[in-house]
Amino acid sequence: MSGILDIVYAEYNYWIYVTLMMIGFYAMIAKKNLIKKVIGANIFQTAIFLFYVSLADVTGGTAPILVGGHGAEHAADVIYTNPVPHCLILTAIVVSVSTTAVALALIIRIYQEYGSIEEDVILAARRELKPEFSEHARQKGVAEVGRQ
Amino acid sequence: MKTLALFVVVITGAMLIYAGQDLPAFGDINSPSYQAPMTQYFIENSLEESGVTNIVTALLANYRSYDTLGETAVIFTAGMAVMLLLRRRET
Question: Considering A53, A87, A90, B73, which has the largest number of Cβ atoms within 10 A of its Cβ?
Fold first, then answer.
């Protein structure tokens, strides 16, 4: 029994991140609303960030900022957490923000074009190719009629 | 559709948890990533080589500065894409 508890205590953090990641994955697959899909992608990414940062953790370790600063002597017995995953995740956060910005801009354009951010409505409009679903196409058509 | 999505999600989560059994324990000081020579090298030598007490800053701006340069290219590309998508069009 204590063996099982040891395993749970050693690896419960991974289970939390798998749960978070699967919540985001489910939102990306099952939700029809495009904004909710983006939110799901963000939850997914955040789970991966937390996973990497927890891989970097060391029990009893302090943040990877040198104790004593620029002083001549450094305490040799200080344990620092692993700085390499932190650095990797800083880069990943920047990429995450960039992809979110582009996705939201694309959703705004889709809304301007179709008047909806629901996936099935957009797909139905695409299938029927009715001009009234497309604000842009309608304005262009009106302009052409006016010119004639 | 939702049932199928839930099925896929549960299967993927079970596979991830099964694969995660081989990962090092939480906070383990003997994990391979912490005991790697590269990590120990950065912790010991980053102050002499870059003059920054924050090791993450030394990694990001000194050892991996080309990566950070590429990161700014990513932000620039995303900003240009958002500008091109959202600018007002002449109808």
Answer: A87
The vertex-A65 CA angle with A77 and B61, nearest 5°, equals 135
Enumerate residues 6+ apart whose C-beta is below 8 A from A107. Answer: A34, A35, A38, A117
Nearest-angstrom CA–CA distance, B78 and B24: 36
Residues 19-48 of B with CB under 8 A from A: 20-21, 23-29, 31, 33-34, 38-39, 42-43, 47
Q: Which of A66, A79, A95 sits opposite B74 (nearest CB)?
A: A95
How many Cβ atoms sit within 10 Å of the Cβ of residue A71? 10
d(C-alpha A19, C-alpha A23), whole Å: 6
Could you report the per-residue pLDDT of B28-65, keeping only the tens digit for each? Answer: 888 888 888 888 888 888 888 888 888 899 999 899 99
**Mutation to test the B interface, candidates A17, A18, A138, A144, most B Cβ within 10 Å:** A18
Report the DSSP beta bridge partners of residue A80: A62
> B80 at the A interface (CB within 8 A)?
no
Q: Classify domain A2-59+79-147 by CATH number.
A: 1.10.287.3510
- Interface contact flag, A80 B31, Cβ < 8 Å: no
Provide mean pLDDT across the span A43-52: 95
Cα A86 from chain centre: 17
Domain boundaries, chain A: 2-59+79-147
Residue burial A43-61, b: 16+ Cβ < 10 Å; e: rest:
bbbbbbbbbbbbbbbbeeb
Binary contact (B67, A94; C-beta < 8 A): no
